[in-house]
Write a structure and sequence with these properties.
This protein is α+β, with helices and mostly antiparallel strands. The chain is built from four helices and three strands; from the N terminus they run αβααββα. The protein has helices spanning about 5-15, 20-30, 35-40, 60-65, and strands at about 20, 50, 55-60. A hairpin with a 5-residue loop joins strand 2 (about 50) and strand 3. Helix 2 (about 20-30) crosses helix 3.
Length: about 70
């Protein structure tokens, strides 16, 4: 039986959709994996934590940020 915190985390994960690892996000933006973690800590990129403590990033959000902007 999950704790209330775990249940809330699972609900948030379900709402955000597919996720990417930090290394995958780093490859998309062409930066180091640690830079992606710094962006998350600074609030520039939202993330969720896995039960093991790893960050995961919403794929739709990352793809939208990485999309070229119209000139």
């Amino acid at each position: 039986m999950p704790t209330p915190r775990q249940a809330a985390q699972q609900q948030r994960l379900a709402e955000l959709g597919p996720f990417l690892k930090g290394s995958e996000v780093a490859a998309i933006f062409g930066v180091d994996r640690k830079t992606v973690g710094n962006w998350a800590r600074a609030g520039k990129l939202s993330s969720v934590r896995t039960p093991g403590g790893h960050r995961r990033y919403s794929e739709p959000e990352v793809r939208a940020l990485a999309a070229p902007t119209p000139a």
